[in-house]
Design a protein that fits this description.
With 371 residues, this protein is of the alpha/beta class. It folds into 2 domains: 261 residues, D-Maltodextrin-Binding Protein, domain 2, CATH 3.40.190; 91 residues, D-Maltodextrin-Binding Protein, domain 2 (3-Layer(aba) Sandwich), CATH 3.40.190.10. Helix content is 42%, strand content 19%. The protein is built from 16 helices and 14 strands. Strands 1, 2, 3, 4, 10, 11, 12, 13 and 14 form a 9-stranded mixed sheet that branches. A 3-stranded antiparallel sheet has the order 8-5-9. A hairpin with a 5-residue loop joins strand 12 and strand 13. Helix 1 runs parallel beside helix 5, helix 1 packs across helix 6 and helix 4 packs antiparallel against helix 11. The longest helix is centred in the C-terminal third of the chain and has 18 residues. It is globular, with a radius of gyration of 20 Å. The protein starts with 8 loop residues before the first helix and ends with a helix.
């Protein structure tokens, strides 16, 4: 679903396993969320935010190019530097290591890399969910049931793996009915051309290329599981507490940019054209990807979803899959090892070890005109 879209990959999985021992220590909730005095941001601190290429995240580099980032950073007296990271996993690893103050991430990857790695992480913006941007492809077969007994190329332990599991579940099959071949996003398109490849799972823009291949049939996609593969802007909880103006500025940047790109006037077309170029495609190609991306143009709708029972249920599915795959690390003894907090204080998992927080504060401010 992006140039190194939602994959954890072996390196990130190993990192998560190694760091998760610290994540599973039982600290009081208040201590976990607190920011030590030394963490207070100095006046001249520059916040670095990482992003990678994906249809739903292209508003970030466009906003930087168009001066929207500077406008909101100046308004809130913060310094913000947007940085493209060519490898999605690397962006998550850098955030986990404290080299980035924020990063564009999926819900699953935010849980299984920074949160599992001990980084107290806050999701301040729900940007979109995959509504067909991720898909299962079979070569020469048009029904998902035909996948039984096949080898499936995908980025293991990523949302591609999750999508496959959900598809098999809906088809009355089990993960044991297939075997997986770990294939990087950079190699997935070429892998389809190999005669030995009969099934794969990937995301856009790679998905669009694979679908052009001979005998390709998309037999399942993320539109069948709306809301489960979410794309977020996450920042460290320490940064959020040390300087709430960072979250306000980022939220203002996001929704001003979406308000421009959503229109069909000259400015909107120009914005989408620029985003297309930044992502390596043309306007028709980019708009085709936007059609399978459910962007929350309305901040109220995004805030309402984050606080809903549906969001909790979707997150519960994702965390259970992640734990079953060992993505919480060797120190995690149960699916409840990592706490996930929602608006209103509801927590899935250990309330004494909250490491992923969904905060609707800033989306609500955007909805009310309070930014």
């Amino acid at each position: 679903m992006k140039a190194w879209r939602k994959g954890l990959g072996l390196a990130a999985t190993v990192m998560a396993c190694g760091l998760a021992l610290a994540a599973c220590s039982k600290k009081p909730a208040a201590e976990s969320a607190a920011v030590p005095a030394s963490a207070a941001a100095p006046a001249d601190k520059e916040y670095t935010i990482g992003w990678t290429i994906y249809a739903g995240w292209m508003p970030w580099p466009y906003a930087d190019q168009a001066g929207i980032v500077k406008k909101w950073a100046d308004k809130y007296h913060v310094k913000i530097k947007l940085v493209q990271i060519n490898d999605y996993v690397e962006s998550l690893n850098q955030f986990t290591a404290g080299k980035l103050d924020g990063v564009a991430s999926t819900n699953m990857d935010g849980l299984t890399v920074p949160a599992a790695g001990g980084m107290d992480t806050t999701a301040i913006i729900l940007g979109d969910y995959s509504n067909g941007n991720d898909g299962v492809i079979l070569k020469g077969a048009s029904k998902l049931a035909a996948i039984k007994g096949q080898k499936v190329n995908l980025v293991e332990n990523s949302v591609s793996h999750y999508l496959l599991a959900r598809g098999l579940e809906k088809a009355g099959l089990k993960m044991s009915d297939v075997s997986t071949v770990n294939t990087s996003d950079a190699d997935i398109v070429a892998a389809y051309a190999a005669p030995s490849t009969t099934a794969l799972v990937t995301w856009n823009p790679q998905l669009a290329e694979v679908k052009k291949g001979q005998g390709a049939h998309e037999v399942f996609d993320s539109s069948a599981i709306p809301g489960e593969i979410q794309d977020l802007m996450v920042i460290s909880t320490a940064a959020a507490k040390a300087n709430p103006n960072l979250a306000k500025a980022l939220t203002g940047i996001w929704y001003e940019t979406l308000s421009i790109m959503h229109k069909n006037d000259a400015a909107g077309v120009a914005a989408r054209t620029a985003m297309a170029k930044l992502s390596g495609t043309d306007l028709p190609g980019y708009e085709a990807q936007l059609k399978t991306t459910y962007l929350y143009y309305d901040p109220k709708a995004a805030a309402d979803y984050v606080a809903s029972k549906d969001a909790v249920a979707a997150t519960d599915r994702v965390r259970k899959f992640s734990f079953e795959k060992g993505l919480f690390g060797q120190g995690a003894k149960s699916v409840d090892a990592i706490g996930i907090q929602f608006p209103g204080g509801q927590v899935l998992g250990d309330p004494a070890n909250v490491k992923l927080r969904f905060d609707d504060t800033y989306m609500k401010l955007a909805a009310s005109g309070g930014l």
